[in-house]
Amino acid sequence: MEYLFVFFLLAGAFVVVSMRRSRKRRSPLPPGPKAIPIIGHMLMMDRLTHRELAKLANVYGGLLHLRLGFLHTVTVSTPEMAKEVLQVQDSLFSNRPATIAIAYLTYDRADMAFAHYGPFWRQMRKLCVAKLFSRKREESWASVRDAVGTTILSLAAKAGAPVNVGELVFGLTMNITLRAAFGAQSKENEEEFIAILQEFSKLFGAFNIGDFIPWLKWFDLNGVNKRLRKARSALDAFIDKIIDEHRRNPKEADSADADMVDDMLAFLGTDTQGGYLRLTEDNIKAIIMDVMFGGTETVASAIEWALAEMLRSPEELERVQAELEQVVGFDRMVHESDLNNLPYLKCVVKETLRLHPPIPLLLHETAEECTVAGYTIPAHSRVMINAWAIGRHKSSWKDADTFLPARFATGGHEAGIDFRGNFFEFIPFGSGRRSCPGMQLGLYTLELAVAHLAHCFNWELPDGMKPTELPMDDVFGLTAPRASRLVAVPTPRLSFELLSA
Ligand code: HEM
């Protein structure tokens, strides 16, 4: 018995000494507020938004450390630190963190967006980029043109009265992604799917104590696990039905009328090139979720913000309209081929994405312990790259909080800067390995929709509201849409025959 006691005493002393030594050897963790034992900074959970984290970065610097229970989190808030994690050491920072909810709802990361960096993700991304996001996939691009046309038609019918632009553009992007994913669908299917998506969205953001204190996850203290099971079985039933319909009515993959489900069914059960990926039904369901989440709210919120900013600065709307008048004229609608001749419209889109990046915090995870700027970042830390704070960083941008599209125009202060991932002061689509694979399709929708809205209509705020009175608050979630939907009054600039053609 005494031997046992001495053994434990020595073992304990050894652990304490070696922990102290290893602590001494390591560089320090990045700075941050003082932590409380065990719970760390969990009392600050409601401050983990892009705006609050930007304020904390002003106090503690571009690399900020917080401990949420047992989870290390690091926030990156300057272009220099973003370059360090997205370029210099990107292979160590390219995993994705997944909460209990995300892991469950993505069939244990059977998708691309939440898969860890590695052979499975690489094969999955190759397949999606070639088959689903490629410019060659005419169905997706055609669905954008049709959905924009339908939106213009419904606006023309409401001309002169206040219109809820936010709801309208959400419907627009939802139609685009639904059609690209499932082909033509009935209204009943659409409503069911929207309800499922909304519950998924809530669950993605729901607080779950088990994410921070792992041994509490079995207790399901806030009933999240029960909701998760219900939501996933609803999606299972919905997509199983669609997969069965596609099997009964098969289409040649890559044919003009094939949708994403047709294209992916062609790979079901077969190994792809490298042999790492054997596509299962779970993969198909999870990829569909990626596309719906990745492509709907992001694009919708950017269109809504662009119009809101132009309504707040009417001289900017006039400048875009003058350009459209010169390039397109009043006798026809905007065509895809016009977009490259509308440089000021592109400046407006860029400036919108700078001030309102639809995904304000890019979520990454470290694969192993590493050192950045002399600080230790522990393995499996959650890394949040604050694209919103970086886009408004005072040392990178002149008049950082002001909407000034001309900054990107020839001769402007920031003329040469773009968002394709080479300028770390401007990363609305991310940069490097995990950057957005849907950028081309997203930008096409955004530019075409904003061009049509500005070309087809004049816009005013309702009830005599002055431009300066338009609220510009956002809400925080996976995306950062407007806190209140934009309501505005359209009046046609083109003839009704043209708008309804
Ligand atoms: C204005 C439009 C869009 C913006 C601003 C945007 C932005 C982003 C950002 C910031 C990321 C994460 C980058 C990172 O973690 O470093 C991302 C990833 C992703 N986006 Fe987009 N996105 C847009 C449109 C789309 C569209 C239209 C789709 C699909 C149709 C899409 C699908 C995805 C997917 C699947 C990922 C995960 C990629 C991966 O983890 O490998 N996005 N997007």
- CATH homologous superfamily designation of the largest domain: Cytochrome P450
Each distinct ligand: protoporphyrin IX containing FE
Judged by helices, strands and strand pairing, the structural class is: alpha+beta
Query: Strand-and-helix sequence, N→C?
Result: HHEEHHHHEHHHHHHHHEEEEHHEEH
Number of helices: 17
Question: Based on the structure given, which CATH architecture of the largest domain is correct?
Answer: Orthogonal Bundle
How are the strands of the biggest sheet laid out side by side? 1-2-7-4
Q: Which radius of gyration do the C-alpha atoms yield?
A: 25 Å
- Count of discrete domains: 2
Question: What name is given to the CATH topology of the largest domain?
Answer: Cytochrome p450
Q: What's the CATH C level of the largest domain?
A: Mainly Alpha
- Average pLDDT, rounded to a whole number, is 88
Largest sheet: 4 strands, mixed
Give the termini separation.
92 Å
* Molecular shape: globular
Q: Segments where pLDDT lies below 50 for 5+ residues?
A: 1-19
Question: How many beta-strand elements?
Answer: 9
Helix content: 40-55%
Proportion of residues in β-strands: 5-15%
